[in-house]
Design goal:
The structure is a single chain. By secondary structure, the chain is an alpha/beta fold. The protein has helices spanning about 10-25, 55-60, 65-70, 105-110, 185-190, 190-195, 240-250, 255-265, 305-320, 325-355, 365-370, and strands at about 5-10, 30, 45, 75-80, 85-90, 100, 120, 125-130, 135-140, 145-150, 150-155, 170-180, 200-205, 210-215, 220-225, 270-275, 290. A hairpin with a 5-residue loop joins strand 4 and strand 5 (about 85-90). The chain is globular. The N and C termini lie far apart (about 50 Å). The model has no long low-confidence stretch (mean pLDDT about 95). Bound molecules: flavin-adenine dinucleotide. Flavin-adenine dinucleotide (FAD) binds next to helix 1 and helix 9.
């Protein structure tokens, strides 16, 4: 008889685990802090990679559903100079290994694939406590609690489960993204829509960037990157015009079709501070508990984080199915592969971050694009 699995966090990682367990007939409950599936906008597009995200969805039996979500043409990419000159351009001929989907739609597909009641919304974990012999008590903010003999922390960067395994805490990387949206851009902001093009657009110089992606319809989703201390961003999330002007002021002299992604935003800007765990983060085996996704390996955004979280979930679910009656054997096998995989990806993410925002920007990124053509 396989142990019931208690998962904290209904992100893409935790949901993929729950779904793969379900495919193998293993019961699981996912406790999620958010009050409902619609409690928060799920962010923009994700490219789902053929070496991690796609195999995870295959293990979840959801390849066909995933294919139905793919937004054609969004794998195109271009790099622009601050004056708007095109430095590099690559179209989407449909043969790339990284099709783009909306994160919210992918999460909805995973949720719909689970038996009703699998996710318990509005269950914010406050503390977790070891009871011995691999059992743990999970206590929620509403005063209730559960006891489990198999606990998985899929609760992201600020995991409440991680302290059972490791003392590591996320550290600020010295850079934040400011997120903005322009809607109906082809009609309302045609010059900016043209500058962004059909897929992803990067305008990078050392320590700062305007990066945007065309999403559904004419929506342009932007991450403005700035290397600044965290307190520099105070007030920006409040849609304070002075704070928006402060952000735009960092791009004085840039082409107006690029700075319009900041100054003409249709939504209040959201600050996304970037944090990481040590690249070689790992832990000794602790009976009855493990981590996946950002809870295990938080790294600078490299386009891999969500893919890795899903892959971890699929690998852990498959390992539990392959070790019936031996969850410790399953966790040991999962972690044996997890640690080197995560360390390698984290080192690559740090390198990409340096290529994008380091002293040589944008040339390192353009060389990388050109080499992969
Ligand atoms: C600006 C930015 C851009 C990114 N772009 C990309 C990209 O293009 N492609 C890509 O692959 N990755 C990207 N990433 C990384 C990606 O978002 C993460 O790696 C991924 O979401 C990790 O998935 P997860 O399931 O581990 O955690 P999360 O997605 O963080 O999910 C964790 C879940 O746990 C819940 N939770 C948290 N605490 C508790 C608690 N105490 N109790 C109960 N529930 C809790 C949360 O509400 C959430 O639902 C980006 C990251 C950032 C910051």
């Amino acid at each position: 008889m396989t142990t019931h699995v208690t998962i904290v966090g209904a992100g893409l990682g935790g949901l993929t685990l729950a779904r793969v367990l379900h495919v193998h007939g293993i019961p699981a409950t996912v406790y999620e802090a958010e009050s409902s599936p619609a409690a928060r906008a799920q962010g923009g597009m994700l490219d789902i990679h053929d070496h991690n995200g796609q195999p995870a969805l295959r293990a979840a039996g959801l390849t066909e559903e995933f294919r139905g979500l793919v937004l054609e043409g969004r794998q195109a990419s271009r790099a622009l100079a601050p004056d708007g000159t095109v430095l590099f351009e690559e179209g989407d001929d449909g043969t790339g290994g990284r099709p783009e989907v909306m994160r919210g739609e992918l999460r909805r597909t995973l949720l719909d694939s689970l038996p009703a009641g699998t996710v318990r919304w509005g269950h914010k974990v406050r503390t977790v406590r070891a009871l011995g012999e691999g059992r743990h008590e999970v206590a929620f903010a509403d005063g209730t609690s559960v006891v489990t003999s198999l606990l998985v922390g899929a609760d992201g960067a600020w995991s409440r489960v991680r302290p059972l395994l490791s003392d590591a805490t996320p550290e600020y990387v010295g850079m934040s993204f400011v997120e903005t949206y322009l809607f109906d851009a082809d009609t309302r902001h045609p010059a900016t829509a043209k500058a962004v093009g059909a897929g992803a657009m990067f305008a990078l110089v050392p320590g700062k960037a305007i990066q945007a992606h065309r999403e559904n319809g004419g929506t342009l989703h932007t991450y403005v990157a700035l290397r600044k201390p965290q307190d520099w961003f105070a007030g920006i999330g409040l849609a304070d015009p002075a704070a928006t002007a402060r952000t735009a002021g960092e791009f004085a002299g840039w082409a107006p079709e690029l700075t319009a992604l900041i100054t003409d935003a249709d939504t209040a800007p959201v600050v996304r501070p970037l944090h990481t765990l040590p690249a070689a983060h790992r832990w000794e085996r602790v009976p009855g508990v493990t981590l996946l996704g950002d809870a295990a390996h938080l790294m600078p955004p490299s386009g891999e984080g969500a893919n890795l979280a899903m892959y971890d979930g699929a690998e852990l679910g498959t390992a539990l199915a392959a070790h019936p009656g031996d969850p410790e054997g399953a966790l040991a096998a999962y972690e044996r592969d997890l640690f080197p995989r995560s360390a390698g990806e984290a080192a690559d993410a740090v390198q990409l971050h340096e290529l994008m925002f380091g002293d040589d920007a944008p040339h390192g990124l353009i060389d990388m694009f050109t080499a992969s053509e």
